[in-house]
Amino acid sequence: MHLTGDPPDLRTRLGGEAALSAIVDNFYLRVTSDALIAPVFARVDLLALRQHQQQFLNTVIEAPSEPTATYLREAHQNLQITPRQFGALLLHLQAALREAEVPDAVIAELIETVEQYADDVIGR
């Protein structure tokens, strides 16, 4: 129950940690079956990939932007993700969020939050 005057944080509005985990599982399945994106992660252990995706979302939800940008640049520097692949990742994330029945306003907020790190993930 939310008792303070502050609005609930993004994780709470997404449905909490269990919901976020289910969203990541759905997102993971979508990403690994997408012919455009799957090659990016071909050299990545699939369990590690799932954990990476969970950590990515937790990082963008929780952390101040500059340490997050630095972390994401370093984490993605050898993956050679293209702008097109990043766009496809966003579409898969939106689909996973919709399937989890996350409200549209919360989806828009999370996507906007993730989009601010596009250059860091892509390596521009």
Structure notes:
Helix content is 69%, strand content 0%. The protein has a single domain, classed as Globin-like. The mean pLDDT is 84. Helix 2 crosses helix 5 and helix 5 packs antiparallel against helix 6. It has helices at 10-14, 16-32, 46-62, 65-76, 83-99, 104-115, 118-122. With 124 residues, it is mainly α.
How is the secondary structure organized here?
Layout: H1 10-14, H2 16-32, H3 46-62, H4 65-76, H5 83-99, H6 104-115, H7 118-122
Helix pairs in contact: 2-3, 2-5, 5-6
Fill in the keyword field for this structure.
124 residues, mainly alpha, Globin-like, 7 helices, 69% helix, 0% strand, globular
Task: Give the gist of this structure.
By secondary structure, the protein is mainly alpha-helical. Helices cover 69% and strands 0% of the residues.
Let me know the number of strands. 0
Q: How far is the first residue's CA from the last residue's CA?
A: 42 Å
Coarse structural class: mainly alpha
Q: What is the H/E order? A: HHHHHHH
What is the CATH third-level topology name? Answer: Globin-like
DSSP helix fraction: 55-70%
Strand percent estimate: under 5%
Residue stretches low in confidence (pLDDT < 50, at least 5 long) are none
Number of domain modules: 1
Major beta sheet summary: none
